[in-house]
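Why does residue order matter? Because the sequence determines the fold. Keep that principle in mind as you read this record.
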Amino acid sequence: MGTPTATVTLPDDPKVRGDVVLPEVLEGREQLVRGNHDFHSITETVCKVNEAPILQTPNGLKFGIALAAAGAAMFGGYIGYLFWEGPGIWGNNNPVGWAWDIVNFVFWVGIGHAGTLISAILYLFRQKWRTSINRFAEAMTIFAVIAAGSCVALHTGRIWMDYYLFPVPNQMGLWPNFRSPLEWDVFAVNTYFLVSTLFWFTGLVPDFATLRDRTTVKWRRFFYGFLSLGWRGSMRHWVTYEKAYQILAAFSAPLVLSVHTIVSFDFAVSQLPGWHTTIFPPYFVAGAIFSGFAMVLTLAIPAREWLGLKDMITIRHIENMNKIILLTGTLVGYAYGMEFFMAAYSGNQYEGFTFLNRMGGPYWWSYWIMMGCNVITPQLFWFKKIRTNVTITFILSIFVNIGMWFERFVITVTSLHRDALPSSWDYFVPVTEVFFFVGTFGLFFFLFLLFVRFFPVIAMSEVKSVMPQANPHWEGYGHHAPGPSGSGEGEKSHGAADAPAPVGGVVPSPAVASTGGHS
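Structure:
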């Protein structure tokens, strides 16, 4: 006996027959879209920030953009100062040649992993709950990779020599060392950025068409019309869109594993105790997904509150992400334990010293911050009351991000500051790197808040595809279904993307497609 679909019972009285109320809980599971929404109300809710005049930008968003712009401007000034003075302005010393520069790079690349996982892998596994969070997770991926790219471009010291990282012909006959994992990073991160950008933009096309068709401002119509690529919501367009989206998802899925695996090779292929270990690739991938989902929650929870998206980003979405954080956090904790086991079992006294030094040496405080944030914090999500508490989840997501930054710090600095020659031991203290680190956050949030202001932060066409109304046999068809406010606007539609996106390669039937588009 199949699982019943979401249906409604219409009253016999024709005067009240239009008040179709969808249950918020069906068979013990919360609906993916709460409230009495229809396709038009979803469009109105998502587009209200994008369609507001520039001078009527919400004050909170104005303040956030201004603050992030100040951080990005400071970052630009710091880069100029770094170009002028050189890496000597950092606190790097003789044993610690890598420090916050590479720590920030690995941190930001990890942050970007959740976007690809949500967009590609969960899409291929037909997880419908991804539809409300995939759009800004993808945007977060792109902006995090931009922040990571700025770190890796600046950490080389002689920045003007970055040209030789790319396999382009040059007059001096020099070619990159393709046996170096630093060179592999260039290919991995650039491929990741390119595919993620294409994937993100492809999903945006139907929603750009919606904004194009709704706007009355000339420059917005041109801007969104250019980005929508002539989308009209026809059957042919949906079929082509589905094929392209599925191909890009298939390309993106392996990148979830490959990119951070190659980043881990920066350390794992060396001969340095604490780095030379085969557990790094799966350990880094799990940690990247762990930190990425934590950042998605850090961004999603304020967004659902300030942008009025609670009906689309529900407790069910937050709980599902907390479960993934619990799983990956447990894997990370297991990897921490296995590192100690392998150091002890190997009988290598240098490996053993490195891990004991992490735990009880001069940087003991950073190690225990890492353990507290990354091992203890996610275990709290075993309790449903904590998984479904928005405030606690937001606080814990910040702790996870703090812990994952310290993980990269512990791996990088504590393995370097005490090498095989005790006379060269030294203690790393950051000098101007704080401005570097804060500046990357300024750049990231500046780009992200501009995205929130001008682009749809929710994939409208995909969210509509998981609503009961997307079923052509839904009992509400043929009856008037008002919006959440009961204003009687439920049958109005604007734009090509008021029709839902096809799911799983199935194009919506004419009954569904006709609910939106051009009349």
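The chain has 17 helices and two strands.
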